[in-house]
Design a protein that fits this description.
single chain; alpha+beta; Immunoglobulin-like; A middle domain of Talin 1; five-stranded mixed beta sheet; four-stranded mixed beta sheet; 8 helices; 44% helix; globular
């Protein structure tokens, strides 16, 4: 089956910038919770499972045998709210973030590749400390750009891991291929697999030197939904495997991650539009969840015409406030 990743614009950022961008002008002398994290070879141990909203400080120590990273993710496990990179053996690095009440996920990544280990829920409870968009919106925008860049880099790193070994779709479903198609011989499969690994590694190298702008984030989310509306919802993309809903979900995830990165800024500028987007994203996800089977989805050929129309209609419904959001944020 095709390797899946959130198909975002490829970007990256230097680790120190990520650290300094996590809190935009935190009030001088503001109090906050302090936690410790032990990143070992096989665990990611956080000193507490919850903390009050506001400024949070994580002191991450690498007790393992590889350079490691620590991630604080949104509850979808995709959007990065804070990241500490390049923590060498025996070293400690601090990560300071400003978080609103809600559910988050913590994880470590020894070797700085793959899916990470020790993923665990982390609850931020309501508190008296005010968590609001900073008056300096430029600082908030920079934080959003950097964090979404980290999200892309993380997804591409996971793609690299998932690609080894990746068989070609047509060869996986030869019975559904065109008449007369013969399964590839071993040598051709190896050649295709090697080429795919090379291309994936090249992609991973390229994302290390790219960066986001606010308009790229907002327009990127629209582009991902447009791609769903014009391609994936027709059932033509996964012609042999019929696994279109996996790609559909990946695009929605990508758009949601890009939206999450700028949501606080949108709330500051237009709270009603943010509420509308929250509602429409949730409605689309409900339709997709109705088609889940185990850890996957119903094959596209098994969807009814009414189910396909409902998905297409909700994509278009979501697209309208998403388009309006761009003008609100950028202009």
């Amino acid at each position: 089956m095709n390797a899946r990743l959130v198909p975002l614009a490829a970007v990256s950022a230097f680790g120190l910038l990520v650290l300094t961008g996590c809190v935009a002008h935190a009030p001088a002398g503001s109090a906050g919770a302090s936690l410790t994290v032990d990143s070992s070879a096989d665990a990611c141990t956080v000193s507490a499972e919850e903390a009050p909203a506001g400024n949070l400080s994580f002191s991450i120590t690498n007790s393992g045998d590889q350079v490691t990273e620590f991630y604080l993710l949104a509850d979808d496990g995709l959007h990065i709210d804070g990241e500490a990179e390049n923590i060498g053996q025996g070293l400690t690095r601090d990560l300071v973030v400003q978080l609103a009440a809600g559910e988050y996920v913590t994880a470590c990544k020894p070797g700085m590749t793959g899916d990470g280990i020790g993923k665990a829920g982390f609850i931020v409870t309501a508190s008296d400390q005010v968590v609001a968009v900073d008056d300096d919106l430029e600082a908030q925008i920079e934080t959003a750009n950097v964090n979404d860049a980290s999200s892309v880099r993380d997804q591409v790193a996971q793609l690299v891991t998932g690609t080894d070994w990746h068989a070609i779709e047509k060869d996986l479903w030869p019975a559904d291929a065109e008449a007369g198609f013969l399964a590839y011989p071993a040598a051709e499969r190896r050649r295709l697999a090697d080429r795919l690994m090379q291309d994936t590694a090249t992609l991973n190298e390229e994302v290390q030197t790219l960066s986001f702008t606010l308009s790229q984030q907002t327009n990127g989310a629209i582009g991902l939904l447009d791609e769903v509306a014009t391609g994936k919802v027709t059932g033509e993309e996964e012609f042999w495997s019929h696994t279109d809903l996996w790609d559909f979900q990946a695009n929605v995830d990508g758009a949601a991650v890009l939206y999450a990165g700028v949501r606080d800024i949108l709330v500051y500028k237009d709270a009603a539009r943010a509420d509308s987007l929250d509602t429409e994203f949730a409605a689309l996800q409900t339709l997709l969840d109705a088609q889940r089977v185990g850890d996957g989805f119903t094959l596209y050929t098994e969807l009814s015409e009414a189910e396909i129309k409902a998905l297409a209609r909700q994509v278009n419904t979501l697209g309208e406030p998403l388009n309006q959001r761009t003008a609100t944020l950028v202009l």
